[in-house]
Amino acid sequence: MKKRIVITGWSCLSSHGLSNEEFENSYTSKVAYTQKENWQKEGIGKQYFGEVPAFDILKELPSLKPPFPNRYSSLGILACLNALKDADLAERADLLETAGLIITTTLGASKAIQEFLGKLYTKGPDKLSPFVFSKATSNSILGDVSRVLKIKGPGSLIYGEDSITYGIDLIQNDHAEIIICGGVDELSETSLLVAKEMNRLLEPDGDEAIDQINNTTARDNYIFGESASYVIIESLESALVRNAKIYAEIVDHKQFMDSKSDKVIFTRSSEDLTFQVERFLQQNNLATTDPILFYGSACLPWHVHSYEWEALGNTSYNYLYANSKILLGEGLSGSNNATIASAILGLQNNKFPSVFKDATFLNTPPENVTMDFDELELSQMVLTNTFSTGGNNTLLLLKKYESEWKK
Questions:
Q1: CA atoms within a 13 Å half-sphere pointing along the CA-CB vector of 22
Q2: Whether the Cβ atoms of residue 337 and residue 229 lie closer than 8 Å to each other
Q3: For the segment 29-43, what is each residue's pLDDT rounded down to a tens digit?
Q4: CA 304 to CA 302: how far, in whole Å?
Q5: How many CB atoms are closer than 10 A to CB 93?
Q6: Whose CB among 31, 53, 86, 108 lies 3.0–4.6 Å from 9's, allowing a Cys bridge?
Q7: What HEC string does 331-357 produce?
């Protein structure tokens, strides 16, 4: 028998702040990134960038013992701790004993690797600590998060896919009742420099960010914004036993590979998305007359229009379109769970990002797509579309959870 699975916790570290409260107060109305020019590397220049505020992990976890985590792992630890607190699991050692941990990343410990190689070539192997090497290994974050927060169930680090889909499978196959699904990437200056050299960054033109993004007609550009985000999923039975807060119920999910994707994350096939969305919604017996809340993951308005809107416009359903990544910036694997968190908050409190609905690229939506949420009754369903470098796409269908007695 297929288990019912619900979302019982979330978190998002971003340039909005270090707490869930700061994210919730900002994700619908404030641009997270600012102009930055004080880089250590030469050649980056003035760029938009969203940076997670500085923090000391030892202040968050005073009992932490050496070896201390690097910044990459610290982002993952703090974001995971916030999610555990939100789900009332931070003090439940009995449940964390069997809870699973899945973390997805795109860049991995790339900054630590770059620093390790730099020291190796400039100072020689005799000057390198073995702890430095261990922090530069790809799966260091998984070991750090599970060790520090005492999460002892099944765990895995994955690249370029959504962690929540693996979590769903683990619960359905009876490997765990609770899975902590994370996405973390630390954006290094090298990544920005490479993107600049490829002419991929939307560079400041003197206007405020909101004005520039609303008015620009530039294509194939994006803005980087760091984030580390988690969602906690568990079987409905487990959630009810411990009287957990339930944000939403997972109806279905679908992973597919984009036929057009290359090394650039935004090279995507709208035809593929049209086909997959139409078939996915039909398989779940959704009526074409009822509006579906669609949470997208395109980074800037040009990509919303040329990819997600073009795809949705060729389906037979009606959509309320929302997107929080435009405000956050592209955080690679850190962004996807932030989209899911924004979606469940939208279901909960009827708040949706609409800062860029008047953007030049967004003033002619397809007839079946709107960003005017006041005009339509709030949908009970939300469909998220997230995608990763390498071509992986994930559709996740969620609905408001209603207890049996309400039904």
A1: 15
A2: yes
A3: 889 999 999 998 899
A4: 6
A5: 10
A6: 86
A7: CCHHHHHHHHHHHHHHHHHCCCCCCCC
Q: At 147, list the tokens.
A: 């060790």
Tokens coding 70: 């690097």
Closest CA to 373 of 320, 308, 335: 320
| Partners of 227 in beta bridges | 14, 185
How high is the pLDDT of residue 389?
83
Fill in the amino acid letter for 15: S
Give the span between the Cα atoms of 332 and 228, in whole angstroms: 10
Q: Residues with Cβ < 8 Å from 164, sequence gap 6 or more?
A: 102, 181, 231, 233, 253, 337, 340, 394, 396
Cα–Cα distance list, 263 to 58, 160, 267, 269 (Å): 37, 12, 8, 14
Strand ranges inside 172-278, DSSP E: 178-185, 224-225, 227-235, 248-257
Task: Tell me how far the alpha carbon of residue 272 is from its chain's centroid.
Answer: 21
What's residue 280's pLDDT? 98
> Span 215-243, mean pLDDT?
93
| Residue 191 region by backbone torsions, left for phi larger than 0, else alpha for psi between -120 and 50, else beta | alpha
**3-state DSSP assignment of residue 158:** strand
What residues contact 284, with CB distance under 8 A and at least 6 apart?
251, 252, 397
Q: Rounded to an integer, what is the distance from CA 396 to the centroid of its chain?
A: 13
- Angle between helical axes of 333-349 and 163-172 (0-180°, round to 10): 70
